[in-house]
Write a structure and sequence with these properties.
CATH topology: Jelly Rolls
CATH architecture: Sandwich
Distance between the termini: 70 Å
Largest sheet: 7 strands, mixed
Radius of gyration: 19 Å
Shape: globular
Structural class: mainly beta
């Protein structure tokens, strides 16, 4: 009886260890909570996100942020990209955006070009895409998640082809909706 318990325990430990050491995944976790700016804007930059990269299936690459809202209300959601071509952002798969049990799937288009942005250097341009809006009813801490093959951590940047390098996600920006 004891040998069966120990054998089962051993199998469970090996299974847990092998799942946590899967070579196809790379993860970078950050626990930074982003604080809302005085004007109500929340700038969720990729370098402040917890990143999950799937080298075999990049369409599952994920960025996740924790942030604190002090001013409830309706927020417009913008996706900021660095791109070589503002007429075609070359998102081959929809970007999935998850917040407060709501999921938006959208193929981003360039809704506005930010000229002379300090966030990108030549030959890239900053293109912002409108994704939709959310209503946040209470102040507090929230979590937001974006899934796309255009999310790339530093390790993935070295492993992509030029065609994939045309566009990359830089940030998600939540701006208060005004009437």
């Amino acid at each position: 009886m004891k040998s069966k318990v120990f054998a089962s325990l051993g199998v469970m430990i090996i299974a847990i260890w092998s799942c946590s050491h899967d070579s196809k995944h790379s993860q970078s976790a950050k626990n930074d909570t982003i604080i809302q700016q005085d004007d109500g804007t929340l700038a969720l930059n990729l370098d402040k996100a917890a990143l999950y990269s799937d080298l075999k299936n990049p369409s599952d690459n994920t960025a996740e942020w924790n942030f604190k809202v002090s001013k409830p209300g309706r927020y417009k959601v913008w996706l900021s990209s660095a791109t070589l071509d503002t007429t075609n952002l070359k998102y081959s798969n929809p970007v999935r955006f998850s917040f407060l049990d709501k999921l938006i799937e959208i193929n981003p288009a360039c809704d506005k070009v930010v000229r002379n942005s300090s966030e990108v250097s030549y030959p890239y341009f900053r293109a912002d895409s409108y994704l939709g809006s959310f209503y946040i009813s209470d102040p507090g801490q929230y979590n937001i998640q974006v899934i796309s093959d255009k999310i790339r951590g530093k390790e993935l940047s070295n492993q992509i082809s030029q065609a994939q390098a045309d566009t990359r996600i830089m940030s998600v920006i939540l701006t208060p909706a005004t009437r």
